[in-house]
Amino acid sequence: MEVKTQTNGLDKDQVESYMDVARENEFDAVITISNEIPPVLGTHPVDLDKRKLRAMPVYHFSWVRLISLAVASKEVHGIEDEEQAWILSELIRYLEHENSGALEFEDMGSSWTAVTDAVRTGIVRRGDGDVADVAAKFDGLVRYMALKLGQKLRVDVEPMLSQRERANPNVRTEALARELAEDHTMSAKIRIPGTAADLEFRCDMRARRIHVFSKVPASGHARNETRVNWLLRPLAETSGDVIIEAHAARRQHAATIAEFREDPKDALPEAFPEIKSFTVSRVYDLGMSRRTSAKTSFINSVIAAVDDFYINLLQPQKVWTRPAPRYKPISRSGQEEETYSSEEISGAGAHESDTMEGEV
Q1: pTM surpassing 0.70?
Q2: What is the SS3 assignment for 54-98?
């Protein structure tokens, strides 16, 4: 096992020499622990020799992932043994202390300034090594943010990646580098179990804005106005600068949340088709400083925007489920009798008993 703390990174030659020793001594695996966060869970932050990996597997854990696993074991799954629970609590307390060396994600790397300068001039080259470094660092930030959010919510929050990206992290890095070069943006999507939709965000490096949004399925109500009201009902009245975009077949229409709240019918164009889904979005200021210690930190602004959007806009949303079908008894004459609600049906026995007692 090779362990690094603080800003110390893993060394390729050192890890590979340990792999040779482990193979010679017939060990099962090599484990590395550091503050480096790989873009894809299960991959290694260091580009190790593939031939050596076939003979000796290497598993990597970031400190933040270990802390998240420890918290989940203690508070979600529970530890029955009191002594083990106490030891785990002490480990968590130690790792979360600022002097432990298990650092927060606090720096976007040495290539950050060169890339932000290139964005300012409008000349960002996809094949530039600095661009690839920033893209990889951004992916590390996304995974760090997912781990920290999952730690707070007590669920496994995961970045959403394609099958190719999971199999080869370089595919994801190349896609981000291309996006950064062509659009001056970097985007990501995370999945939070139990929510109505995935949370997505796009960092516009040139405009210095972060656009956070979720595409929420519309309810199954018959009228568009009712579908809008279902979406807006759980959202706080103070959600001022939120934009709602209604999606229908081959049509969409966007308006502020205030316009939809005032009158959903007036906010939608006349004869607007049946709404299938909504995109709920909010734009936040994006800091451009490299480190978290700066007032306009890129890392802090991204984390704050995602947390705010989740708490105020995504968390309150509920997945709509179709209500149970209405019970319609058939009379002996073949005519449909009155429709009864489930509450009326559940109370029917008591009413019938009262009536029979009165008759007796």
Answers
A1: yes
A2: HHCCEEEEEHHHHHHHHHHHHHHHCCCCHHHHHHHHHHHHHHCCC
